[in-house]
UniProtKB/TrEMBL annotation:
InterPro entries: FAD-bind_Monooxygenase_sf (IPR051209), FAD/NAD-bd_sf (IPR036188). It holds the Pfam family Pyr_redox_3. This is NAD(P)/FAD-dependent oxidoreductase. It comes from the Bacteria. It comes from Alcanivorax profundi.
Length: 507
């Protein structure tokens, strides 16, 4: 019997211990992998729940889906592309770009596809992360959580929703098998996704009812197609790409300055209101789509075809939220009722409670989502979480600047990978952000956010959690953020070296 037990124990598989594991193969995860390889890392893997790379650009396939940051900046600094067909790329091109980058840099073979993270726990006895996945257990000395902030689609719970007998889906889970031609469609929400897909579906549907709880600022989009000649010139002359990228970054820095100093935006708001007079003829509709808050308080949207779609004969803007569903009747807050065949939710994402929190447990054994349930998450420089050793979050709380997510991710990853290198090269067994450092950092962030347009612009946005705390924005410039992320300071962390732990065990 003892011999059989010994044989079974010897035959049981032993999980390899990786230097690092990256969770997610979207824009952040791919950048993390490429930067790790550049620093000489070979012993790491990416685990990805889906069957291909892409993150949000893989998941969101609704009609008209595209980026509101110019392609020159919404691309990696180390992988500029001359293939963009427009100044602002659409979803299929961005997804193709991410796939190409993954292949070109040799990252695709390092990805464990169809591997969904179920739980991540810190094992203090071994100084290791134990990641339980849909394909078994993974062990790693360090982890980079690159799951992104825009992942959990949000559908409100409304009275009578279960009685609806028609078709219903969220824009992030678009049902391409369902033909909208000739249907009566209710679109709930007027955020970034809705202003892109509403103009695409409007010509096909019989009636379109757009439920608008809050009118957004929608500015003209300076988008143009790029001819084959233009692309050829850009390819032959990389200086054009770099100059284009620099010019876009400069213009976004100007917007960021305005967001930090709301008085600067007042003339822009006035000009935008005057522009609405040219864009929307009907004074009643114009009044309904005119925002009642300072430009920039909510996300600024860009589109050239949204207002024309709202003025089409088959479109009705309902300047109220949806409050109830009665069978196939949708009911607005003002009591207005409409029979529809389809409900499309353009209600965004739950960004204040990142879904990764449900799967990660800190060193005390506490589930992060339980700690965040009555508030929103806090981090140090959006990367280091309290009581979560040897692990970092990409695009975490309070690093949002009006810029490209790719630019932000790259800046943050320079900091994170500097930390990973210190853990590896200096024989560190455990590294955790000091409580005093994270507390002081977040107190300062919240203090300086008070004067920004996000907090003082007179709106309720996804930047603010249920308590009115701004968990998303960075209150200073992108330059200041990059400077803070340029160097990983060990003194900000509680550090236990491998030799120290070995000496304790020996004692």
């Amino acid at each position: 019997m003892a011999e059989n037990k010994a044989q079974n124990k010897a035959a049981s598989p032993v999980s390899p211990v990786y230097d690092s594991l990256i969770v997610g193969a979207g824009i952040s995860g791919l950048a993390a992998a490429i930067k790790l390889r550049k620093e000489g890392y070979t012993d790491f893997k990416i685990i990805e729940k889906a069957s291909q790379v892409g993150g949000t650009w893989r998941e969101n396939t609704y009609p008209g889906c595209g980026c509101d940051v110019p392609s020159s900046l919404y691309s990696y600094s180390f992988a500029l592309s001359s293939k963009w067909s427009r100044l602002f790329a659409k979803q299929p091109e961005i997804l193709a770009y991410l796939k190409e980058v993954s292949d070109d840099f040799g990252i695709t073979p390092l990805i464990e596809f169809n591997t969904d993270l179920e739980q991540a726990r810190w094992d203090d006895s071994r100084d290791l992360w134990v990641l339980n996945t849909s394909k078994g257990e993974y062990l790693a000395r360090t982890v980079v959580f690159a799951t992104g902030p825009i992942t959990e689609s949000q559908i409100p719970s409304l009275p009578g929703l279960e009685t609806f007998k028609g078709e219903m889906f969220h824009s992030a889970k678009w049902n391409h098998d369902y033909d909208l031609t000739g249907k009566r469609v209710a679109v709930i929400g007027t955020g970034a996704s809705a202003i892109q897909f509403v103009p695409e579906i409007q010509p096909r549907v019989k009636e379109l009812f757009v439920f608008q709880r809050t009118a957004p600022w929608v500015l003209p989009k300076p988008d143009l197609p790029l001819s084959e000649t233009s692309k050829s010139v850009i390819e032959r002359l990389p200086a054009i790409q770099h100059g284009w990228r620099k010019a876009v970054a400069g213009s976004l820095n100007v917007i960021n300055f305005g967001l930090r100093n709301p008085n600067v935006l007042k003339p822009v708001s006035s000009a935008a209101r005057q522009l609405l007079r040219l864009q929307v003829d009907d004074p009643v509709l114009r009044k309904a789509v005119t925002p009642d808050f300072t430009l920039g308080c909510k996300r600024i949207l860009f589109a050239n075809n949204y207002y024309p779609a709202l003025q089409a004969e088959n479109t009705s803007l309902i300047p109220h939220g949806l409050v109830e569903v009665d069978g196939n009747t949708v009911i607005a807050a003002n009591g207005e009722r409409h029979e529809v065949d389809v409900i499309i939710w353009g209600t965004g994402f739950d960004v204040s409670h990142p879904p990764i929190g449900r799967k990660v447990f800190n060193a005390k054994g506490e589930r992060l989502s339980d700690l965040w349930k009555d508030s929103s998450p806090e981090a140090y420089l959006g990367a280091a979480l309290a009581d979560v050793p040897n692990a970092f979050l990409v695009l975490g709380p309070n690093v949002l600047v009006y810029d490209s997510f790719i630019v932000l991710a790259e800046a943050q990853l320079d900091y994170i990978i500097d930390g990973l290198k210190k853990i590896r090269d200096r024989g560190i067994s455990r590294l955790t952000i000091r409580p005093s450092v994270i507390e002081q950092h977040n107190q300062k962030v919240q203090k300086h956010l008070k004067g920004t347009v996000f907090n003082s612009g007179g709106c309720k946005s996804y930047y603010l959690d249920q308590n009115g705390r701004n968990f998303a924005a960075w209150p200073w410039s992108l330059k200041a953020l990059k400077k803070r992320l340029s160097r990983f300071r060990l003194k900000d962390y509680e550090v236990v070296y491998q030799q120290q732990k070995a000496n304790r065990k020996a004692a």
